[in-house]
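Appendix B. Extra example for self-study. Work through it before the problem class; the solution is given directly after the inputs so you can check yourself.
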Amino acid sequence: MNQETTASKECIVRPEGPITAARCEEFRQELQDKVDEGFVEIAVNLEAVDFIDSRGLSVFVVCHKTLSKKKKGKIRVFNASDDLKKLFQIMSLDGQFVVE
Amino acid sequence: MSIVEEKDRLSLEIESSLEAIEEADRRVISFLTARGDPIDLFAVRILLREAVMNAVVHGGGEETTGCGTLDVRVDAEGVTIRVSDNGPGFVHDRLPNTREVLSDGGRGIPLMKLYSDVMEFNDKGNEVTLRKLFRSDDSGLVEDDKK
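Solution. Structure tokens for the complete assembly:
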């Protein structure tokens, strides 16, 4: 998993492969580490992610809630495939955080 | 793992591990891709993964042996996925009609409902049958759910 920092309080996380029940723990921990490091805006680059299941979606939601409640921050998703954009949309998550 | 593969059918035993979901996904998508049917593979992946995950989580207990079965059949109109598990089942006819958008979990059954054309449980609630029709527009979503 690759990460890069773009601004003082924003970072980019770039997970690879599916974000699923069997594969999401590393991603969840990576997001938690960024929150613990003080980042209030986390951008997730999904260009290398082909699939997300319900457990994976929960990782995004939990991180979003942590950022918004404790630090008034936000999560942003970008470079999502059409299938993944549709997935966020159908679960109404595109109304909670930015999906690009 | 017990596997039966025929021209229009793939059946396999589900083991009690999260890796079983990945294995089921690989085998079913390989099976369907080789056939070349006009099916929304992303939708099929949603259906089989969520159904198998429920079997793994609720049907296996602490056992490490098989917790259920996955059966995929293809006909002239689409794909039918049936997943049964060895668990006690659940009261499927009392599922809430609305869902909390930012809940920590509970998206598995809503996803199956939204990405399938038909979703049915047996009376006990430990077997789900999901039907995905071939689509010319390949949208992957039921029209009513796009709103």
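Self-check: The longest strand of chain A covers residues 10-14. If your reasoning did not lead you there, revisit section 3.
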